[in-house]
Write a structure and sequence with these properties.
The chain is built from 17 helices and five strands. By secondary structure, it is mainly alpha-helical. The longest helix has 27 residues, at 167-193.
């Protein structure tokens, strides 16, 4: 690796202090591009994050206040360089500048200190409250910056860093709480105006949880209150009771349709109860196999297979004198699913179902929102 540009770390530290952050990134990228293949490139990154970082932060002894301030500035530059190295190993070049420009080094250093000290040294069960209290002291604009840094830190530290255990969960919970607060505030304004938004229950199979999460976030951004089992269901409660209560307490059920969901007895129960109670039902599909002529037969074959397996297991347990209640409940659900499947798929084919698969999500979610709001 050629070190001509970095042969004098003291000079480089001072030089970087005189240029903008994007100019510094341009220099780092340019030097990286000069390396011929992967091995020299890795040597270059190692040099930046270890040797050069050390030289930047321990070049001279501090004797005066001016030197102390200069050292602090160099420390910020050194951390920016090390952050660039971490991002370079994880992200394409075009995303790096956006990340670093939008998240100042002071914010980055501050939240790193919080994670290593107040957050990282506390028991896991205390970390949610500590995290919420920490972010609550900032304005909404600053919270958005810090959350962007946190998402970046989670990406960069995917190797089970013990100080970051539970961080991802805390970020998700804080976002949920923030969204709920926004919805509550918007609802108060709507009540004052004499209008009130409809509440929505999202019905889905857990194999499709990512689609459900994206849809939930999109609806909440429009101040639509969402009930979803991953957040609303209390541990230990009966699934059937939760479904009935959720449908009773909401005006709209949005069902995420896929091959897996149509073979789910629970999703079938949610859809049937919604239609039976004459609630608004919106079908959003992420696969369109249910339009195929042979789809119902293929599903019924799969259900028959499951029923036969349950019958075999039930007989074996009876022969051994063991309890069968869990099997009879599941057997009943599978039989109900088979009985209602043809009618339900026929209902779907006769409705305007909305395609939210892949790239269609951004184009068609506004249609879901309009349908919910009755626009």
């Amino acid at each position: 690796m050629q070190k001509s540009l970095f042969s004098n770390p003291a000079y480089m530290a001072d030089y970087f202090l005189t240029i903008t952050l994007d100019e510094m990134i341009e220099i780092l990228e340019s030097e990286y591009a000069k390396q011929i293949d992967d091995k020299p490139k890795e040597i270059y990154l190692d040099f930046l994050s270890n040797e050069l970082y050390h030289d930047f932060t321990s070049i001279e002894k501090i004797r005066t206040e001016e030197e102390r301030q200069k050292r602090q500035k160099r420390q910020k530059i050194a951390n920016c360089v090390r952050l660039w190295v971490k991002l370079k190993r994880k992200l394409p070049s075009e995303q790096i500048t956006a990340y670093m420009i939008n998240t100042s080094s002071s914010h980055y250093l501050e939240i790193q200190s919080f994670l290593l000290n107040e957050f990282g040294r506390k028991p896991i069960h205390e970390r949610t409250n500590i995290f919420n209290n920490y972010l609550s002291q900032y304005s909404e604009e600053e919270q958005n910056i810090l959350m962007q840094i946190l998402r970046m830190i989670i990406v960069l530290n995917s190797n089970n860093n013990p100080n970051l255990v539970y961080l991802d969960e805390c970020v998700k919970k804080f976002n949920t709480r923030k969204n709920q607060s926004t919805i509550a505030r918007d609802n108060i304004n709507l009540i004052k105006q004499g209008t009130m938004p409809k509440k929505v229950f999202i019905s889905y199979n857990h194999n499709d949880k990512e689609a459900a999460r994206h849809l939930k976030n999109a609806l909440e951004k429009e101040s639509i209150a969402v009930t979803i089992d991953s957040e609303a269901m209390i541990a230990g409660s009966k699934i059937s009771d939760f479904i009935r209560q959720s449908i009773a307490n909401t005006e709209v059920t949005v069902s995420i349709i896929s091959e897996k969901s149509l073979l789910s007895a629970w999703v079938a129960m949610e859809s049937i109860l919604t239609l039976h109670n004459q609630k608004q039902f919106i079908a959003c599909y992420i696969t369109n196999k249910f339009f195929d002529n042979d789809f119902i037969d293929a599903c019924e074959d799969e259900i028959d297979k499951r029923i036969n397996e349950l019958n075999t297991e039930l007989k074996e347990r009876l022969d051994k004198g063991r309890g069968i209640e869990h099997l009879t409940d599941e057997l009943t659900r599978q039989r109900d699913l088979k009985h209602n499947l043809s009618k339900f798929i026929g209902e779907l084919r006769n409705r305007l179902c909305i395609d939210i698969s892949g790239y269609n999500f951004l184009d068609n979610v506004p249609k879901v929102i309009k349908a919910i709001k009755g626009e």
